[in-house]
């Protein structure tokens, strides 16, 4: 199994994503957790977790409002 992330902007367009072929869902979630702010600063608004190319879930990258 290969776990990867696809990043999208507000219009749903793909944003270039660094190589993120990871061996487990936990590894993939940790990888994104360390980088999501950088991706959001580059215009990503959504991250899509893929398992062998199939969507597992979508996640909003907007910071929580206080």
Automatic annotation (TrEMBL):
Residues 1-28 are annotated as: Disordered. This is DUF2188 domain-containing protein.
